[in-house]
Design a protein that fits this description.
There is one protein chain. The chain is mainly beta and 120 residues long. The protein is built from no helices and eleven strands. Strands 2, 4, 5, 6, 9, 10 and 11 form a seven-stranded mixed sheet that branches. The protein starts with a strand and ends with a strand.
Length: 120
């Protein structure tokens, strides 16, 4: 019903930058929230950043001041600009969305994940 396609992961040196993108498609009437979680080996998945329809954002404390989340409502796309990357940011990053379907049901979906590796 809702598909998320992520792009932008890769290998970067400490201090470098990456930009992740995630586009949602499907039977979407309205998107409430889009965001990113990440999961490092041996650790639990954690919220990195999310953005509500009105523009309110939430960030994990460890990324505040370095990462910026934004969205293009017309394109149903969310972006995560990651600057000042650190080795501890290495993880698989998952996009998620919570939407209202045309059937008037709420629906949460996840992307397939994109690897971000920060290493010299």
């Amino acid at each position: 019903q809702v598909q998320l396609v992520e792009s932008g992961g890769g290998l970067v040196q400490p201090g470098g930058s990456l930009r992740l993108s995630c586009a949602a498609s499907g039977s979407i009437s309205m998107i409430y929230t889009m965001g990113w979680y990440r999961q490092a080996p041996g650790k639990q998945r954690e919220l990195v950043a999310e953005i509500m329809r009105g523009g309110t954002t939430n960030y994990h404390d460890s990324v505040k001041g370095r990462f910026t989340i934004s969205r293009d409502n017309a394109k149903n796309t969310v972006y995560l600009q990651m600057n000042g990357l650190k080795p501890e940011d290495t993880a698989v990053y998952y996009c998620y969305s919570r939407v209202l379907l045309f059937t008037a049901q709420d629906f949460t979906s996840w992307g397939q994940g994109t690897q971000v590796t920060v290493s010299s």
